[in-house]
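**User:**
Make up any protein.

**Assistant:**
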Amino acid sequence: MTACAIEGGSAGAAATADPEAEPEPEEPGEPAGADGSGLLPASITAGQADEENGEAGETEEAEASSTVTDARSHADAPPPPGGFTLTADGAYAARLTAAPGPPGERAWYPERWTLDGPEPYAVPLPLDQPEEPDSEVAPLADGRVLIRRRVADRQMFSLLYPTGPGTGELLLGAVGCAEMTLLPPSPDGRSVYALAAGGDHTSLWLVTGGAFGPEEVARIPGHCLGGVWLDRAGRMLALDRQQPGGGPVKAVAVDLGRQGEVTPLLQIAPGSDDRLLLADPDSGLLLLRSDAPGHDRLGWGVLGSCLPVRFPECLRLPDVAVTPFAVQPGQMLMPESCAVALRIDGAPGSWVGVWRPAGRQLHQFAAPLGWVPGAGYWSRDGVLRLPYANGATPCGVALLEAPEDVEPSAVTGRTEGGEGGGEPSAADAAPAVCKPVPLGQAPLHGAARPD
């Protein structure tokens, strides 16, 4: 599995970043290191740059087609400490939530959301004692919820499920380590893996889905973080790895079908930190973050392709962090047509962006009231579903239809040869609002977009 090069480099299995492919401003528009869930992409390989061929990469300077002016954080209660985790197909979600109480004395308990029915609903899964805020939960395709609890220097794992008015619990076992992090649920719907860092290696554990409780399936030299699944079978996993002793962060692929065999993946420039953020197994689209162009930039590539990795200009916004969180599935052999949902974090709060590689435009929308930033999933026909909860709606899903891309001249009123090319500020356009609508009551209407 190899995708290659970056924009401005030579095609083939070997190329490096050409920092002059896109001129950098004096003040970078995107904060370095604000990548949210950092993890490296699958198999984009790059080698030596062809600096003498004079080929400059294609500069993408599309204007943002709509801009948010008021994107506050609307949640009525503090966000769940463990975030909001979805199954790979978006059918279930799980989170920690809190019973009403004074700040600092909230009783946390797991909650499962069912999202594939006619209307979403939430099922509380409390036990006799409240959970610690540092517990993690992950939903499975059969509706059960995995929970990881830290007890002294051990990690305890259980499966929770509703049993009439109460909560059932199936104890899975424990792992003797002080720190552990759950990976996103496997696409197979029944397996969940976790990472545990050692002195000079990282252990990969199958904590549910095996035959005998938690079991170590691989030891990877170096320090690994994050995790991105590269296929629908749950066999190929991409991780961010820093070699023992330090050095740049590079991607590796872990083949779980070959006893955890590790192979290099994303390597754009010899000294660059190259991280995979998302991968779509259907189209091969990869969303990545790399500092190869001079500072951290969002880029995209195609798994198994010799197309260059590109760093779109329209994804460079001043004073905000932009992080992709969902890719439209089902676009076989059409990576450039996939709609990508992005979380945008700035001083006003968090809001939603939608972008396609082919369109070169970033559409921005206000988030629904009570949205957990970064939670959402696409349907195959291009409708983004954003789970939210607020005082009026304890469990809801807002629908946002992916907007059509238009030529930059139609958005900005400038000709293609005009000056400029940066995104308008938040004050330049009215917000396009993604209205919160319960899933069972919502027709598929298009999101507001500029004329």
